Amino acid sequence: MDKDKQISSVAIKQVFLLAIILILAGLICFNLGLFVPSVLGAITIYVVCRKYNFYLQEEKKWKPSLAAFALMFASLIVLILPIYFIADLIIDKLGNAQAYMEKFNIFLDKIHDYIYSKVNFDILSPENMSKLKNSVGKISTSALSGTFNTLTVVISMYFILYFMLEKPRLFEKILTSSAPLKRANISLIGDKMRKLIMANAIGIPVVAIGQGIVALIGYLIFGAPGPVLLFALTAAASVIPVVGTAIIYVPVCIFMIAEGNTAQGLGLAAYCLIVVGLTDNLLRFTLLKKLENIHPLNTVFGIIMGMNLFGFMGLIFGPILISLTLLLIQVYRNEFSDENAPPDLELPNQGITEEKII
Questions:
Q1: Among 264, 262, 230, residue whose Cα is nearest residue 247
Q2: How many CB atoms are closer than 10 A to CB 100?
Q3: Is 114 a residue whose pLDDT tops 70?
Q4: What is the structure's pLDDT at 235?
């Protein structure tokens, strides 16, 4: 047999070792899938606290355990509790699923009847109304069931986070030495992931809570029903691109007008359209632009995937996973192609910085 046509023994060993690694990694992920959100959450908080952790340990000479506990407590107060408050508020208000669905059905029927009486057009047939009610019920049940696991995720997340924060140099050295990539691509992934995580872990919650608070002021001023619940729903809806908070306040305004509160309904509509919309644009074009420019499609599909995989926590992790997948495609091309990437395929803001991961 021609030796030139034989498969190299080195290639055979590489394929065999790669197959073993993939099988073992698959077994680990399959059996420890419950802890995937915890690992993602720990990495997210680690990236947010990384700079402060090095500052406390290496400049202020704090004990590693003390610095780790201080940053864990700070992240709990600043990052976790606001998100947990909104989720817990929604669960508490919607906990009685049967009573909630009865109120929601009355809410939809009044909006439908009002629109039909004004334009004489059946915008939603009885069949579509029934489908809409059933769909909302299924989505609500799915979202709430995923959120009930949040406490377990948070506890295991902080358990993992402690070991990351206590010895950060060792943790990052293990990651970089284990990655079978060029040094430049490791730096690219580290730089890009820091920006993505900061944008999702800080930018999105800040925009959501900011819009929710501004909308809450309007709900209280114009006498909207259940303003506290509407605050939580508006904050959660702000992460949805294009429609955003309008998916909450538009039906509320129509409902108020249908109830006979025409002035309040129109006033709330104008307030939300101008003030809440201005708040959204102001926060997105200032805060989020400084952190990272995430494409709206990444957010849409990331939220859908993240909610299915991780429940409420998927609002943050989903877009990160979508962006990471696109980034790894870019890294693959850089690793195994000699061609320069065309300008139109370059990911935005992905310049490699001089800062090293370790």
A1: 230
A2: 16
A3: no
A4: 84
